[in-house]
Automatic annotation (TrEMBL):
<dbReference type="Pfam" id="PF02636">
    <property type="entry name" value="Methyltransf_28"/>
</dbReference>
<keyword id="KW-0808">Transferase</keyword>
<dbReference type="GO" id="GO:0032259">
    <property type="term" value="P:methylation"/>
</dbReference>
<keyword id="KW-0496">Mitochondrion</keyword>
<dbReference type="InterPro" id="IPR038375">
    <property type="entry name" value="NDUFAF7_sf"/>
</dbReference>
<dbReference type="GO" id="GO:0005739">
    <property type="term" value="C:mitochondrion"/>
</dbReference>
<dbReference type="GO" id="GO:0035243">
    <property type="term" value="F:protein-arginine omega-N symmetric methyltransferase activity"/>
</dbReference>
<dbReference type="InterPro" id="IPR029063">
    <property type="entry name" value="SAM-dependent_MTases_sf"/>
</dbReference>
<dbReference type="InterPro" id="IPR003788">
    <property type="entry name" value="NDUFAF7"/>
</dbReference>
<comment type="similarity">
    <text>Belongs to the NDUFAF7 family.</text>
</comment>
<comment type="function">
    <text>Arginine methyltransferase involved in the assembly or stability of mitochondrial NADH:ubiquinone oxidoreductase complex (complex I).</text>
</comment>
<protein>
    <recommendedName>
        <fullName>Protein arginine methyltransferase NDUFAF7</fullName>
        <ecNumber>2.1.1.320</ecNumber>
    </recommendedName>
</protein>
<dbReference type="GO" id="GO:0032981">
    <property type="term" value="P:mitochondrial respiratory chain complex I assembly"/>
</dbReference>
<keyword id="KW-0489">Methyltransferase</keyword>
Length: 422
């Protein structure tokens, strides 16, 4: 077929560790304890932090946050997400988007929006497929990315030229893709202009801050992060240590977020995600389009999923904050609830990654690519990538797909159900 194979040896080797991204090359601050000390000072002044505040500080602190100062580093890098494993993943997403867009009558102008594009690989594969099918007329690529370093890496992957914009503009970087369409970068979805939108979020929501609650004999308490008094020293260069504590009184978030009929021992809720789900629904209702959300997660049943990854291993989220990736599973039931509360939105899913990809035609693509490969190693590699994406004990079951459509699509979707979810 039309695209060249680029399977990753690295993927096969590290398939066990899905949630590891970027080799850490500190630019601004080399001190591994820097964020820990900032958090320590914050807690000294303000008291224990919520897990959400801790995640925000660790992941997106403008100076040293985990996402804010990573370089991307080819062969030696230690990340692995589905789009990085093989181009087949992005191609299937692109084919799905094209198919659903065509059912809508291929409205133009069209903006493809990706939330948290990482290295820009998924967007790049989507644009390539759209270009192949001549679907880029009056199209734009809009990227929502908080990290200046990653936005630069994305621009190198996607654009023939790009530049930073004036600080007065909501677009902070813009360029032209290798296929000739405009590409623009924003810090948040609410800044992306309204208009017909095909929105994709792959492993974006699991990176957003969560509040954690724990059931006790005296009701739910919010889980907070405090300084560990057993590890306090007078040496200001030592590594501060933290521990989990429970709030003494009801916290504002507990009152706002926890449902009265909640029964789980541990509950994790991401108000930042809820806000973005709402914005997506409002956008789809106002100007049409669809959203495809892909992430690892559960449907209303998850409990204690907050964790950290460093160099392909799960580590303690409270140790050396800023040197590891923090993440929590996505609750797809919450997306449906937001959509239902908003009204005028059809929510479909979740489907497992395996089901979604196979129903979208991954196996056909896999066979077509195989037919053109003569090199044995290359062939083995491609087969391994296929297995990593679809096997139940690899990424096939844990990763889920969920889609949102405006209710105006109901008649069409009743006739031609959404591919990948039936
Ligand atoms: C876990 S990575 C996923 C990367 C990519 N989608 C993939 O699957 O390879 C999360 C991405 O979201 C971005 N991100 C994290 N928090 C963000 C926020 N609050 N706003 C915008 N982007 C954010 C990160 O910089 C990164 O690009």
């Amino acid at each position: 077929m039309f695209l060249h194979l680029k399977p990753s040896n690295f993927a096969a080797k590290y398939f066990k560790y899905y949630r590891s991204y970027y080799t850490v090359k500190r630019k601004a601050v080399k001190d591994e304890n820097y964020i820990a000390r900032q958090i320590y000072q914050k807690i000294k002044v303000k008291g224990p932090l919520t897990v959400a505040d801790y995640m925000k500080e660790v992941l997106t602190n403008p100076m040293v946050g985990y996402y804010m100062h990573k370089d991307m580093f080819g062969e030696t890098g230690d990340f692995i997400t589905s789009p990085e494993i093989t181009q087949m993943f992005g191609e299937m997403i692109a084919i799905w988007l094209l198919n659903e867009w065509q059912k809508m009558g291929s409205p133009k102008p069209l903006q493809v929006v990706e939330l948290g594009p990482g290295r820009g690989t998924l967007s790049s594969d989507i644009v390539k497929v759209f270009s192949h099918f001549k679907a880029l007329h009056k199209a734009k690529l809009q990227l929502v990315e908080i990290s200046p370093v990653l936005s630069e890496i994305q621009s190198r992957r996607l654009c023939s030229q790009s530049h930073l914009c004036s600080e007065k503009m909501v677009v902070y970087r813009q360029g032209t893709s290798h296929h000739g369409i405009p590409v623009q970068w924003y810090k948040q979805l609410s800044d992306v202009p309204s208009g017909f939108t095909l929105l994709v979020a792959h492993e974006f929501f699991d990176a957003l801050p969560i509040h954690k609650f724990h059931k006790t004999y005296s009701g739910y308490k919010e889980v907070l992060i405090d300084i560990d008094p057993n590890a306090e020293t007078n040496n200001e260069n030592s590594e501060p240590k933290f521990r989990y504590v429970l709030s003494r009184n009801d916290t504002p978030m507990q009152k706002t977020l926890l449902k009265p009929d909640e029964t789980r021992d541990h509950v994790e809720i991401s108000p930042d995600s809820i806000l973005i789900y709402k914005q997506i629904c409002e956008r789809l209702k106002a100007t049409g389009g669809l959203a495809l959300i892909c992430d690892y997660g559960y449907y209303g049943t998850g409990t204690d999923t907050f964790r950290a990854f460093k160099k392909h291993k799960q580590v303690d989220p409270l140790v050396l904050p800023g040197t590891s990736d923090l993440t929590a599973d996505v609750d797809f039931k919450t997306i449906r609830e937001v959509a239902n509360n908003e009204g005028g939105i059809i929510s479909i899913g979740p489907a497992t990654q395996r089901d979604f990809l196979l129903k979208t035609g991954l196996e056909f693509r896999f066979r077509a690519l195989k037919e053109n490969i003569t090199d044995k190693k290359h062939l083995e590699n491609l087969s391994e990538c296929f297995r990593i994406l679809t096997d139940k004990d690899k990424m096939g079951e844990r990763f889920k797909f969920f889609s949102l459509f405006p209710e105006t699509m109901k008649r069409i979707l009743d006739k031609c159900p959404v591919v990948g979810f039936t």
